[in-house]
Automatic annotation (TrEMBL):
Occurrences of domain Endonuclease GajA/Old nuclease/RecF-like AAA (ranges): 1-45
Name the UniProt record assigns to this protein: Putative ATPase
Organism, as annotated: Phytomonospora endophytica
InterPro entries per UniProt: AAA_GajA/Old/RecF-like (IPR041685), ATPase_AAA_core (IPR003959), P-loop_NTPase (IPR027417), RecF-like (IPR014555)
Taxonomic classification: Bacteria, Bacillati, Actinomycetota, Actinomycetes, Micromonosporales
Pfam families xref list: AAA_15, AAA_21
Origin superkingdom: Bacteria
Record field: transmembrane: none
A GO biological process held by the record: double-strand break repair
Keyword DNA damage in record: yes
Keyword terms: DNA damage, SOS response
Domain called ATPase AAA-type core: residue spans: 249-342
Listed GO MF terms: ATP binding; ATP hydrolysis activity
């Protein structure tokens, strides 16, 4: 389980170190930095997929994403973007057994057409709750990578490109088995924030009848994902969460032509089942969250952004219970500005991280300078 998430110099996240639990709900007012924290987690996941640099370039490059305030808030006049130290965006996390951190900085002046691409300056992988020299397992400084070899170090011949992460590049278990394990674990992280429920949403149509243990990012394969849970997943919990949300209703996945499946919901008092195209946005969205959270192939980390969108207030409690059921198999982070959902999640044992702005930077409400988890960044 991931215990700590750390971000430095990403948008309003000047320096943020937050604790994570089995269920963590990140909340706060509009503009407090919730979306930035969500994006930072996605950027960390992209490091293992080789897409972090491209993701930053898509946001306008490093200059558009770096903290725009003074380097030392509260020390004399505002310095703007003048920096004393190295310019960099840092991301990291620590789990029960492994930790990882990456430092991305601007490239040297170049005539390349890819001038928006930042460079990976430093990476580190360590054992235990925080970085310390004795716990370091692998370190990348510029193109040079060294890995722990018994009591000493082995410098690898491989020199990754400035835009490639070492955990995405080094897949040889003979050299760095910890990097390979860490890469696969991060690649299992799952994010959902664009589950469409509008009239033209893909989830309102049928889908090819093929086993689907992981719901797609747009929910197009909802019928196949639900049928997969029914056949090889926790169908009892699925029935329970549907009944709590829609008392007396029964979910059905039916054939819709050759080798295609469609969703239907039989509700009390109606003479026929309703197809996905007839369901309200809130009902469809709840079914999408059920398919995503009750996956037969749970990830190490499940992150959902504003799952309360379009839901009727009566569905907030069942949604919290659905998230709690999923947390038995996966760590869950929920980003939400819904006070009822935050309260409902706290009732099922969630830890709350409330963000607010102070002087343009995001801080954790009620947390003093020395209250956060211990964290140390690798040095350039």
């Amino acid at each position: 389980m991931i215990n700590v998430l750390a971000v430095e110099n990403y948008r309003s996240l000047r320096h943020l170190v937050v604790p994570l639990s089995g269920i963590t709900v990140v909340t706060g007012a509009n503009g407090s930095g919730k979306s930035s924290l969500y994006r930072a987690l996605r950027l960390l996941a992209e490091c293992a997929r080789g897409g972090a640099v491209a993701a930053l370039a898509a946001e306008g490059g490093l200059p558009s994403t770096l903290w725009a305030g003074p380097e030392h808030p509260g020390r004399g006049p505002v310095q703007g973007t003048v920096r004393d130290g190295p310019v960099g965006l840092r991301l990291g996390f620590a789990a029960d057994d492994f930790g990882y951190a990456v430092d991305l900085g601007p490239p040297p002046p170049t005539r390349s057409a890819f001038a928006l691409d930042p460079q990976i300056k430093v990476e580190a992988v360590w054992a235990g709750p925080f970085l310390r020299p004795a716990a370091l397992l692998a370190e990348r400084n510029g193109p040079r990578i060294k890995v722990r070899d018994g009591r000493g170090w082995a410098v690898l011949d491989h020199r990754p490109a400035p835009f490639d992460s070492m955990i995405g590049e080094l897949a040889d278990p003979r050299h760095a088995p910890e990097l390979l394990e860490l890469r696969e674990r991060i690649r299992s992280w799952r994010f959902y924030d664009h589950l469409r429920t509008d009239a033209g949403a893909p989830a309102r149509g049928s889908h090819i009848a093929t086993r689907t243990p992981v719901l797609g990012h747009d929910g197009a394969d909802l019928a196949a994902a639900l049928q997969t849970i029914i056949e090889i997943g926790d169908h009892t919990t699925l029935e329970t969460v549907i009944d709590k949300a829609f008392p007396g209703s029964r979910l059905k996945v039916v054939a819709d032509g050759p080798a295609r499946l469609a969703v239907e919901l039989r509700q009390p008092g109606l003479l026929r089942s309703l197809g996905a195209a007839e369901l309200s946005d809130g009902t469809l969205r709840y079914l999408l969250w059920a398919a995503a959270l009750l996956t037969p192939r749970p990830p190490e980390l499940f992150v959902c952004n504003e799952p309360e969108t379009s839901l009727h207030p009566e569905l907030i409690g069942p949604l919290a219970e659905l998230i709690a059921a999923a947390s038995a198999h996966t760590q869950v982070v929920v980003v939400s500005h819904s006070a009822p959902l935050v309260a409902a999640l706290e009732e099922v044992g969630a830890g709350t991280v409330e963000l607010r702005k102070e002087g343009g930077r995001t801080i954790v409400e009620g947390e003093g300078p020395l209250d956060g988890p211990p964290w140390y960044w690798p040095k350039r």
